[in-house]
Amino acid sequence: MAVLCSLVVGLLPFAGQAADDPLFDLDLTEVLNLEITSVSKKPQTVSQAAAAVFVITADDIRRSGATTIPDLLRMVPGVQVGQISSNTWAVSSRGMDGRFTNKLLVLMDGRSVYSPTFSGVYWDVQDAVIEDIERIEVIRGPGATLWGANAVNGVINIITRSAASTQGGLLVGRAGDDERGGAVRYGGSFGELGHWRAYAKGFTRDPVVVEATGKDAGDSWRQARAGFRADLTPSTRDAVTLQGDYYRGRSGELSNLNFVIPPYNAIAETDQKLAGGNLTLRWQREVSASDSFTLQAYVDYTRRDWPLHFDERRTTYDLDFQYRSRRFSGHDLVAGLAYRYSRDALHPSYRGVPAASLVYPDVQPASAERRLLSAFLQDDIALVPEKLILTLGGKFEKNDYTGVEFQPNARLLWTPSESTSLWTSVAKAVRTPSRIDRGGYVNVQLLPPSMMLPLPVLVQGAGIVESESLIAYEVGVKQRFSKTLSADLSLYYNEYDKLRSGRLIGLLCMPARAPVPGCLLQPGQSYLLQSSLVANEARARSHGVELALDWRPLSTLRFQAALSQQSMSVQEKGSAFSTDREESAPEVQASLRAMWNPRSSVDVDFWLRRVGRLADVGAGVAIPAYTELDARLAWRPRKDVELALIGRNLLHRSHPEFRSELQDIPSLEVDRSVAAQVTWKF
Questions:
Q1: Is the separation of the CB atoms in 402 and 469 below 8 Å?
Q2: DSSP state, 115?
């Protein structure tokens, strides 16, 4: 921190030499007119979107100094990000946060990256060359009408740059006290046919620390990946994109081991083996001046050998067709059909684990096929051209677990002036069951013998889960007060039904033939099993407000603030307990970013964050509120070279942010870190 402050002070005499021209990628008018596609699956501006949408631009990404996508998402109001370990995050939108968050849909260039195993995202393999990300579009609230099941509390679409915009070479190197790595990318052309690029990237990240001891947490993380993209224009009406990635890596983890014999509980270092690849083909065609279609197909393969959990292999094939028509006056129609086929193999992983330990989950059958067929239609109806737009839409989905699900929405957008947009919406979304929900059991916890219970007690959950549902009501306003100040305000009220829950049932003695009061068998031959029946016996209500401010008092100075407040209450039926906890996300979050260019060649960036207390992240474990500061100083001695010094979590040596809801790893703390980065374009 002292080094960063000294460098900033050294630059102050040059403040008067700032250029008059703006040094940011976009001014406020351009931000509101930024073209996005995730809200309506068609190009529209931010001000035209009847939704709570936030766009992280390429300039935001560069100036943040972040190297992971979860860290970038911290700047979005209403999105909760808690780092659990060096390679693990809890990421959610509008509450219900957890390592296994299951109500947030994440896409990479339109390719879904959610795991059907638990209806969530493995964040340690969602990566890209950060400099090649064009923008990240974040929709808070349901997006199920267009994107389908699991787009319940939000949609995140990570969009990379076109090959044409990444021509030439890029070399990035980073070294610090917790992370080292780099990336190389080169792009060229096919002449008049189009452009291409290829990249390679690798990094290693050191472990964080155990909260109780301050010692190494054994969660080091290393990964290497390579990929390509080609954008072709075989005709004036056609655009074809072919892109793919391949990765390999390891994610370390300090795991809690449970035994039904002494010592009953232990901690061991485990190592997840990761590998995967994907290939996407997208064809866009302008049929006429009013009509167009997009056909996209992708294949995605993942392998994760996760000790104490699964050795998982999965292959997914997806085909998506979308048609847009504006031939009818006052209507902008978008319709689509999609088919997804997924095949997996899930086996308990004992690699590197003592034979007597209890593996946490198991799923039957060990191999399965899953199919998803969907169709949607959405119409933007101009009640008053360019002033009042009514959007009506609905999506039918047929899955192998619960059959047909219907997810409708209605949105109304009013733009009384170029600087003001008001919108409201009501929508339904569902979360369909995961593989673990249908046919799995999880060893939640082992209680060692006590005076009351002379035998170890294994708490285990299993059952049959149906679809969860949400009805969401939203209202918002986007206001540009002047050329230098804008605000985006959203309010919401959510009603959840049929949330996944557990219910404790009677104690059983293992082996079952032994009488419960006298289970005095030899250690290792007997334990008590506390079963939990998993079903859909919980409901919840939540409400909140989200505010984003952008102020540019000078052409060389920008402030970006975000504030969110949310509250949730869960209603449980009888003795049931919800797996979605009321207090797993902070009630209040605040963020303030300051971006200053004292000279055209110098960036000075500060990012101050306040995250409220987490009263219950699982098993009654609380996480205290914290305030943190990130800083970045960058200098461009030449147009094609940038040198940057980045500090993260500068206010504390270490602090906890989250803990896995299954308590499968100890409570860890995120470290302070400092890194230097060199970027060369050639």
A1: no
A2: B
Between CA 422 and CA 490 the distance in angstroms is 10
Angle at 60 between CA 411 and CA 610, to 5 degrees: 85
Position 428, amino acid: K
- The whole-chain average pLDDT of the chain stands at 90
User: How much is the pLDDT for 4?
Assistant: 44
Cα–Cα nearest to 552, from 12, 21, 8: 21
- Beta strand spans in 453-510 (E): 457-464, 468-480, 485-510
- Which amino acid appears at position 459 of this protein? V
DSSP 199-259: EEEEEEE---EETTT--B-S--EEEEEEEEEEEEEEETTEEEEEEEEEEEEEEEEEEEEEB
| Domain extent listing, the chain | 2-362+371-681
Token reading at 610:
């306040």
Q: Are 421 and 47 spatial neighbours (Cβ–Cβ below 8 Å)?
A: yes
At 158-193, the pLDDT tens digits run 999 999 999 999 999 999 999 999 999 999 999 999
CA 374 to mean position of chain CA atoms? 23
Indicate the pairing of strand 111-112 with strand 154-160: unpaired
Which residue is associated with the tokens 């267009």?
A: 146
Question: How far is it, in rounded angstroms, from Cα 74 to Cα 217?
Answer: 24
**How far is it between the farthest Cα atoms of the chain?**
85
Q: What angle do CA 466, 658, 676 make, to 5 degrees?
A: 125
Identify the H or E element spanning 443: strand 438-447
CATH superfamily of 2-362+371-681: TonB-dependent receptor, beta-barrel domain (2.40.170.20)
Residue 32: C-alpha distances to residues 26, 270, 419, 516, 663 (Å): 10, 47, 9, 67, 43
Report pLDDT for 17: 38
β-sheet bridge partners, residue 421: 478
Q: Report the DSSP beta bridge partners of residue 389.
A: 382, 413
Distances (CA, A) of 596 to 212, 240, 540, 593, 669: 39, 39, 43, 10, 31
* Dist. CA 558–CA 560, nearest whole Å: 7
By the 8 A CB rule, do 643 and 676 touch?
Answer: yes
Number of C-alpha atoms within 13 angstroms, CB side, residue 180? Answer: 4
Q: Which two tokens stand for residue 25?
A: 């990628």
pTM: 0.92
Is the Cα dihedral 649, 654, 658, 660 positive or negative? positive
70/67 Cα distance (integer angstroms): 9
For residue 277, how many other CB atoms are within 10 A of its CB? 17
Question: Counting beta carbons within 10 angstroms of the beta carbon of residue 428, is it exposed (0 to 12), middle (13 to 18) or buried (19 or more)?
Answer: buried
